[in-house]
Amino acid sequence: MNGSPRTPIRRALLLICALTAMISLLLILAVPAFAQEGTPPQPSALAPAGPNSAAIASLFTIVLVMASVVFVVVEGLIIISAFRFRRRAKDATEPTQVHGNTKAEIAWTILPALIVVTLFVMALQTQQTLDTRPVAAAEQMTVKVIGHQFWWEYQYPDQNITTTTDLVIPVGKVVNLEISSADVIHSFWVPQLNGKTDAFPNHVNLTWIEANTPGTYYGQCAELCGASHANMRVVVVAKTPDEFDQWVKQQQAGPAEPTDALAQQGQQTFMTGACIGCHTINGTAANGKIGPNLTHVASRTSLAGGSLPNTEGNLRRWLSNPPAVKPGSIMPNLNLTNTEIDALVAYLQTLK
Ligand code: CUA
Q1: How far is CA 11 from CA 17, 91, 129, 164, in A?
Q2: Beta carbons of 267 and 256 less than 8 angstroms apart
């Protein structure tokens, strides 16, 4: 091309390059800001609350720093070269064409290879940290985690508890998770406690979590599993050992017996209607296995797979049309009358 060296196209290209570099840099600098925003219910892998997530977060930080250095050096050299060696008005001829520089080529082959090997070794070490459970039996407990469309079931074999939505754990204890699925593939992910573990039907995946401090840690099913994949939340409630023991006692107790007339009417509706085909309330005629165990439904933080806070209004909304709240919900619209809903809400709210 013999045109003017400063054609509009070249200027535009230069501008695009400079803008891309600037935006990329800004995005990188903004990452720590996202980390500080790791307040619930926005789960953040950059605000670790246990040993596993801490190992993942520190690997991430190291990789981010290395990648940033490479990015700045490479982009910097490109930008400097583009400006310094651009064609000027007085340049009538093409510059000397050079090809091949053995030293440079060896350097840019070995350096990236070293970086990749370093990353590989560090990733292996982190993987090993995640796979190695602390061994002292007294410091451990087990929970079976079962994915359903679209909610998580938690079975505590040693405590003989079955619950849903909230995975309640004691702080400072290794909680071994045996993860599987009742239907399709899901993925159990609580970013502040650990990475993702897939939940397969007919296969148990093992992982473990430990929370350092009491609190509520939010998570999300991380494998597209159907219409309400996004509504399939995880809520981990980490309690002090004393509070946890109290919770265990409460969950092991039988269901509350309703005393007021409306709640009793709701119990009647529940026990004689379609509800018992899918739901269990321990020690009663209701022993369906398709839906969540409702023995202590009122003690949980949320409803509908963790997508709604457990309030009277939301319970009413849920009962009046489940698929409208959680698309693809297996619980159908039972066309309950307002009277039935009032009574059922009153009853379910007694099940603390
Ligand atoms: Cu379960 Cu996505």
Answers
A1: 10, 17, 51, 60
A2: no
Token pair for 165 = 């939505």
This prediction has a pTM of 0.78
Between the CA of 187 and the centroid of ligand 1 the distance, in Å, is: 6
Report CA(221)–ligand 1 centroid distance (Å).
4
Kindly give the parts of the chain with pLDDT less than 50. 1-4, 34-40
The pLDDT value given to residue 7: 74
**What tokens appear for 60 in the block?**
């991430």
Token pair listed for 282: 């321990």
Alpha-carbon distance of 258 to 345, in angstroms, equals 12
Cα of 239 to ligand 1 centre, how many Å?
26
Nearest to 150 by CA among 318, 307, 337: 307
**pLDDT tens for each residue of 20-78:** 888 888 877 665 554 444 344 667 788 888 988 999 999 999 999 999 999 999 999 99
Q: Which residues line ligand 1 (CB under 6 A)?
A: 147, 150, 186, 221, 223-225, 229, 232
Exposure on the CB side of residue 170, measured as CA atoms within 13 A: 18
Measured from the CA of 225, which atom of ligand 1 is nearest? 2
82-124 pLDDT per residue, tens: 998 888 888 888 888 888 889 989 998 999 999 999 999 999 9
The secondary element (H helix, E strand) that includes residue 127 is helix 102-131
Sheet containing 174-181, strands listed edge to edge, beginning at the edge strand earlier in sequence: 161-164, 151-156, 140-148, 174-181, 205-209
Within a 10 A sphere around the Cβ of 253, how many other Cβ atoms? 13
